[in-house]
Specification:
Length: 228
Amino acid sequence: MNVTYIHHSGFLIETEDCYYLIDYFQGSIPALNPCKPVLVLASHKHHDHYQKSVFKILKDMGMQSIFAVLSRDIPAGARPEDVPCLLVSAGKRYELPQGQELVTFRSTDVGVAFLIRDGQEIFYHAGDLNDWVWSEEPEADNQRMTEKYQKQIDLLAQELDGRTLTAAFVVLDPRQEQDYDRGMLYFLQHISCGCVYPMHYWEQPQIMERFLREHPQYQNRIKLTQPV
């Protein structure tokens, strides 16, 4: 499996049989094999996770087989008119076009997180599922947020049932200031995964270096992301 970081929370994942383009909204997409299917996944409607224009970009690149997997909160007017589309909700299980299995989890913001099984490859994209604790919020609200987040990660662990993820794409957001690492740490402590790609860091990649300085025990698991 090959992973290319594009921008913000956008990644291109290539497996033996297809491409996955997840949460793309801007950035340069590398050259693709036009004969290989591409699945466009969008975890929710926020502008920094989905733009309808992605389908025109892929068609202009000559992609012959495009399939959309969109969170159900994305409005009808923002969905492609001429691309097959699967609308997904949280807490469900779906079969994708090449027989892959998709399991969705409930975001702590909007939409879903994705777990995909493609042959021997298993990978997870958080979307906006994160422990969104903010210093200016009441402690009771922050505690409820943490409980919601940890419940979803615990459900992910149950779904994996001891299996190791090939790759995971997890939020590391500097806007949370001293709480920036809460979601990432809980994920690393409870999910087996050798390659964890930080995302959603708002063009402040130094937050990854800070995380590794403060948590050097994860040096071998965190993969620093840079745009193509």
